[in-house]
Amino acid sequence: MSDDDQGRTGGAGRLVTGLAWAVLLFGLWLWGRGVTDGGTPARPATGDVLAVGGLAGLPRAERPLGDAVPQRVDIPALGIQAPVVARGLDAQGAVDPPPYDQPGVVGWYGAGPGPGAAGAAVLVGHVDTETRPAVFYQLSTLKPGRRVRVFRADGKVAEFTVDDVRVLPREGFDARLAYGPREPGRAELRLITCGGTFDRATRSYTANVVVSSYLTGTTG
């Protein structure tokens, strides 16, 4: 998003973020109802690829762990150390994001895989609030090869390597690309927030930032 958009912290911030979240959550709603098939989705012509790592030069994938609840996520390159809370569905069948008064909290889609287990685990965070940037404000600047660590309730730390960063537009939003596994049987992690540019007509961001990563190590 532009510098002007990222600097927007006035009273309209909550409305802006809320509308963008509606798009994100609708995608999660579709995903939860079976748009994934466990295979590798085709990459659409739409979607701005910020950085594509491929597998060249990146570490090999590690064997998936068992399922466990995530407790904290660390992204050293962005200085993020954030608690993770499980989120369920709201009355409309969409995933309920973290409350606006907890801008430093990351939400985990609890009906999906735990980070480190086989499949694509999903962590979502706000980009801003009505007064300040939120936990995933700088998510779009993450690059392939950077590490993401998830501390789990079983005492293990799942270490992921970023291999893809995309901005998926609201128009023709591809839920399968955003939330579906890229490689069958692999443990993967998605980090998602609002992105694109600010649409003054709809008072919403035009896209979502989707960071993809896969399990490359375990400690603890």
What is this structure's SSE topology?
Blueprint lengths: L2 H4 L6 H23 L12 E5 L17 E6 L4 E8 L18 E4 L9 E6 L22 E6 L4 E13 L5 H5 L7 E13 L4 E16 L1
Parallel strand pairs: 3-4, 5-8
Antiparallel strand pairs: 1-7, 2-3, 2-6, 4-5, 6-7, 7-9, 8-9
Entry summary:
By secondary structure, this protein is α+β, with helices and mostly antiparallel strands.
What does this structure look like?
The structure is a single chain. Strand 6 and strand 7 form a beta hairpin. The chain is 15% helix and 35% strand. The radius of gyration is 16 Å and the shape is globular. The chain is built from 3 helices and 9 strands, in the order ααβββββββαββ. It is of the alpha+beta class and 220 residues long. The chain has an 8-stranded mixed β-barrel.
**Overall pLDDT:** 79
| Sheet of most strands | 8 strands, mixed, barrel
Distance separating the two termini: 37 Å
| Low-confidence runs of at least 5 consecutive residues | 1-15, 35-54
The proportion of residues forming helix, as a percent range, comes to 10-25%
Order of helices and strands: HHEEEEEEEHEE
Number of DSSP helical runs: 3
Strand order of the largest sheet: 2-3-4-5-8-9-7-6
